Amino acid sequence: MISASLEPAVAMAARPDLELVRLVKRYGGAGHGAPAVDHIDLKVAAGSYCCLLGPSGCGKTSTLRMIAGHEAASDGDIVLGGRNITALPASARGTAMMFQSYALFPHLSALDNVAFSLKMRGMAKAERNARAAELLERVSLGALAQRKPAELSGGQQQRVALARALITEPRLLLLDEPLSALDPFLRIRMRAELKGWQKSLGMSFIHVTHSQEEAMALADQVVVMNQGRIEQSGSPHEVFNTPRTEFVARFMGGHNVLPAPHGEGRIAVRADRTRLSRAPLPTGPTSLAATVRNVEYQGTFVMLTLDAGAAAPELSVMLSEAAFDAAPWQPGDGAHAHWDAADVHRLAA
Fold first, then answer.
1. Nearest residue to 197 via CA among 140, 148, 113, 236
2. Residue whose C-alpha is closest to residue 214's, from 1, 328, 49
3. Taking the mean position of all CA atoms in its chain, how far away is CA 159?
4. DSSP letter for each residue of 288-344
5. Coil, helix or strand for 233?
6. Residues 6+ apart with CB under 8 A from 109
C-alpha cells in the first residue's frame, strides 16, 4: 500500500518547501576553483513543478546534484521542509533522483528494479514486491512487471525509473534531463505524463533541462541560469513575456533585442509582435529599415530573419502562414520592421 504521503488528498500546507540560501559549488583543487554555482538564492513552493533551465555549463545540473546529495555544497544551505539537509547523506534527505540514463539494472525485471532500494533496506520480499507492483500499476506497467529493461521502450523504461524513485516515498523528486533521450513524438507525450504524475502526487518536482519548450510546457516556476547564477525566476508566462535581462530574452527565444531610444540600455520586442511593411516608414523608436536575409517555413507560421544594420544585425519577424502567402517575402527584399510602443519591454542593465 502506498503511504498517504503520496496521495493528492494530503493538504498542500503539509508539503515541504525547498529553499537554497547563498548556495555555492566550486570544483578544482581543494574546491577553490571558479564557482560553477555562484551564491544562488531560490525558493520553490510546495507541490510545484520547477524547471532549472539554461545552456550547458550554466550550473543547473550541479545545483540539482547538490540538492540530491550527490555533490557536496562548497558553501550555503539547502533547506527542505524547514529542515537543513546540506550536510546529510543522500539517503537521509527525503529526495529521490531520476537520472537522464534511467540507470536501470539490465539483469533485473521491472518489478525487481523498482523494489531494489527496499531490498537494500532489508524489507521482506513479499512486502517490497507488493509495493513495487502497486507502483508499476500506477504508471500503467503492471502487465510488464517481469520484463527486463531491454524488452521495454524508452517511454516504458522512464516509467520504471519514475516508479523506482517514488517507492522510497520522497518529499522531493529530482529529474536530470529525463526526456532528452526520447524521440520528439514520445518526448511530447511523456511531458504530459510527467506533469500529470506531478499533479496527481501533489509533490514537488525539480527538473533540469536545456529546452525552453520543455520548461514552458511543464513548469509552474522557470529558473533561468547563466554562468552559475540565476538570471530570472518566475512563471513561464512572466519569464517569456517580461524577460529581465538580455540573456533571458535571447535564451528564451521569440524576442528581438534592440538598443533603447537615446542609447539608454536595451529593449526587447516579441518577434510575433514585430510587423513588416513594404512602404517606407520613418525610422525611429518603433521602426527600422532592414533587408530580408532568410525565410523559413515552420508550418503554421513563417520566420523571417532580417538585417537592420548596426542596430539589429539579426532581427526576427514571425508571420502567420496566411499573411505570408498573401504577400510573400524573399531574401534580398527591402522592408521596414515596426512595432507598437506598448509591446516594448525594457531590459535590466
1. 140
2. 49
3. 19
4. EEEEEEEEEE-SSEEEEEEE-GGG-SSEEEEEEHHHHHHS---TT-EEEEE--GGG-
5. strand
6. 145, 146, 147, 148
Instruction: Select the CATH number that applies to the domain covering 4-241 from these four: 3.40.50.720, 3.40.50.300, 1.10.150.530, 3.30.420.150.
Output: 3.40.50.300
Tell me the C-alpha distance between 64 and 23, whole Å.
11
Give the three-state DSSP class for 235: coil
Q: Cite the residue boundaries of each domain of the chain with CATH code 2.40.50.100.
A: 260-346
Q: What is the CATH number of domain 260-346?
A: 2.40.50.100
Task: Provide the whole-model pTM.
Answer: 0.86
Q: Which three cell numbers stand for residue 91?
A: 539517503
Grid coordinates representing 29?
Answer: 583543487
Q: Where, residue-wise, is CATH 3.40.50.300 in the chain?
A: 4-241
The C-alpha atoms of residue 102 and residue 304 are separated, in whole angstroms, by 39
pLDDT tens by residue, 164-207: 988 888 989 999 988 887 778 878 888 888 898 898 888 899 99
